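Appendix B. One record, verbatim.
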Amino acid sequence: MTTSETVILAAGGTGGHLYPAEALAQELLGRGHKVVIITDKRGAAFQNLGDQVEVLTVPAATFKAGIVNKINAVLEILSGILQAAKLLRKYRPAIVVGFGGYPSFPTMFAAQWTGLKTIIHEQNAVLGKANLHLAGKAVAIAASLQDTRGIKDANQSKVTVTGNPVRPAIRALRALPYPPLDGVFEIFITGGSTALTHVFNDAVPVAIMLLPEDLRQRVHVVHQCRAGEAAATAESYRKAGVKAEIKEFFSDMPERLAACHLFIGRSGASTVAEISVAGRPAIFVPYPGHADRQQTYNAEPLEQKGGCLIIQEEDFTSQTLAAELEKFMKDPALLQQAAATAKSCGQPEAVKNLADLVEGTLQRGG
């Protein structure tokens, strides 16, 4: 592959799709390649790449209930495909890499329609809808986990397990030791990108209040809430007598993760990958709205080895959480072992593996 060739990345939507694309972009730039990203209207999410990468946007849509919404979605997707096709003709990429999610679909469909080589990367343990439709014409499928569900038998020969790329700032955490457990016990909580975050806001303050006094006094919480929930959540912690820092967004997520003794949150693919690479124990509460149970499957390999605990949302009560917190705080060795296990399951070489797959595919002419 020469530096005159262009690699286009198609990604958008939530961080689970954006972060792996951002990591690959940085890796390819470091190898001397030109990278262009085609995304949806939320293209500002790639601002961390600065002016090194040209970020373009095309229309995209997902199907919602109602015939009018479905018709509008079809029109929006068709518009996105046509605009993406024009951009592909302009930039003439050597290959197009898609990261799933509906914002990637117009560009990936246009690339396959015009005969370009495509690779899809699947972050989750279950092949997503967009990638499911694109897998047949892709020349390679990069999977984050072994035995990814939903890949047809006819496409199994295309699969390479690369792992799920994480941001360089997260990879750097592997060099840091697990924080000492002889003082403040820091819990880091995020609710994910979905609207159903109230389970954390409701259960965690009460759970900590249920701890024995000596343990409760040691707890410090860092809690990321959705917009509009921060004030009420802060009040819940105040009433419970819990020391907490509440924000709608933490710009220093790697530093927060480095300082925490225990992470509590959803088990989206990128979250599980980052927790594992950083080497932090976690209590994962899978998002219950996915019919394919992808978030449960994302975390299961880590739980089976002892690096995390999965609690389904219907079981995530204050009483259940309090019992787990007390167990962890009274047995520091248990947490340290979970941290070490999580780190051993991390995939810090995932971005290198994915970049190697991109270059290898081009070199093979496949």
